[in-house]
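Entry 14: structure prediction run for 8-oxo-dGTP diphosphatase. Input pasted below.
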Amino acid sequence: MPNQTWQPPPVLLTVDLVILTLRSSALHVLVIERGIEPYKGHWALPGGFIADADEDIVDAARRELREEADLDAASLHLEQLGTYGRPGRDPRGRIVSVAHLAIAPGLPEPEPGTDASAASWCPVEEFTSGRRALAFDHRQILDEGLERARTKIEHTSLATAFCDETFTITELQRVYEAVWGFELDPRNFYRKVQAVPGFLTPLGPDRRATRGRPARLFRAGPEHLLRPPMMRPFPPTRIETE
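Run finished. Output C-alpha cells:
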C-alpha cells in the first residue's frame, strides 16, 4: 500500500553547459562570471533554471546559451552529459541540473547577458590545474565533460573538424594533444592514424616543411566511427619525464 502521507519533495530543475573549442591550439571552455548570488563574482559554466513547466530541457539549454553568452546553439550539437542532484550542491535548495556538452571549432567570442557579468573562453588547464575555481559543482561537471570529449575523439573523426580542409598529420596530432592534455610520440601517432581505415584520405606532398621533405597532406576520410579507435596512450608520469 502506498504511503498516503507522502508528499513529493520540492525540487527545482536547471541546465548547465560544457561548451568546448580550440583556440590558439589549446582547449578552451566557455565560462561566465556570475552577476548574482550565490557565488556572485565567481566563474561558472553557463546555465540556469528552466523557464516554466512547458519548456523542454534541451530548449532550456539552448536558451541559456543564447541569454548568458549570446551564442546560437542551433549550430551546435548539444548532447546530454549527465544529471547532477547531490543534496547541498546549490545553497538555494534541492536543485537538480541536467548538463549538456558540445565541442565544436570556430565558435565566436561570447557576450554576457541576463545574470552574467562577463562571458569568455578560458583555457581548460586553468581549471584542471586548480589555478581557477568554478562555482557549485561545476568542476565535476567540467571534468566529466572533458572525459566525454576525450573519448569522442578516440572513437570518432571529430578531431578532423578542428583542422583546415587539408592538413598534415602533425596538425591533427596537435588537436589530439590539446584535447587529451599531453604530448604524443609522433611516430606512434602516425602509425595509429594510418591503421584506421577511412579516417584520412591522402592528397600528396603539397606543403613544404620547414626542413627536409614536403609534409604529406590529408583530408578527412569518409568514416565517422573509427575502427580500431584512436585509444589514448598512458601519459608519462612526472618521474618518467625528469
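Notes: The longest helix spans residues 138-155. Will compare against the previous run tomorrow.
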